[in-house]
Amino acid sequence: MSFGFKTTWLAVRDVSPEEVADALELRYRQRLDWETGTELAYDHGVFVARPVPEWTLAHGRMHLLHDTDPTYPDFPDRLRALAALIGDFQYFRTERVSDYHTWVKVESGEVTRAYCYIGMTGEVPLRLGEPTAIEKELGVGLVGREEVRKKWGDAEWDAWHAAMPTEHEVMRIAADWSVCPPLIEDGSVTAPGIYGLPPGVEPAPAS
Fold first, then answer.
1. Residue 176 confidence class, pLDDT cut points 50, 70, 90
2. d(CA 169, CA 186)
3. Facing residues of 32 across strands?
4. pTM of the model
5. Which of 38, 74, 143, 206 counts the most CB atoms within 10 A of its CB?
6. Contacts of 76 (CB under 8 A, 6+ apart)
7. How many Cβ atoms sit within 10 Å of the Cβ of residue 185?
């Protein structure tokens, strides 16, 4: 299975892996096959490849946009700056243990849709734009913490939690917006990708 669960990735349409790697300022670059690059990026660094026509994916569990986070106030600004270099793109993140799930769509240089839920704390730190059709179909991404009421009973809380996403909804949204990485068969990807480290990240110590 390709990446997707327990990681972070970008989906960029009609932009080459080289251009995305340049925008991310990747250093120590290596040309690697899909399986090797994907595995390495789960542990360290970022892997950028074009596994399907039209879409370039950049994946890094720890280091993709490592110096910012959806919970930071400057996160939308960082995405706008990246869009100035690569155009429209999408950002996804899933973390199973903390139940941390994010999806963002950037169009024409602006963040048109963004949602972040952290199940461990019950927070919705990022919520911008109107829910897309797939979110409405899945019934997720529709509410935030501002809907929470102190006097709620069990039924109200159950309904609120039911409207919170899981990693599987993130994959469904990715499939609707662009491409769902876990559905990519490793053996179908023949073109190599680019593995590298963003600024501030040094090579992992030799084991």
1. very high
2. 22
3. 193
4. 0.92
5. 38
6. 111, 114, 128
7. 10
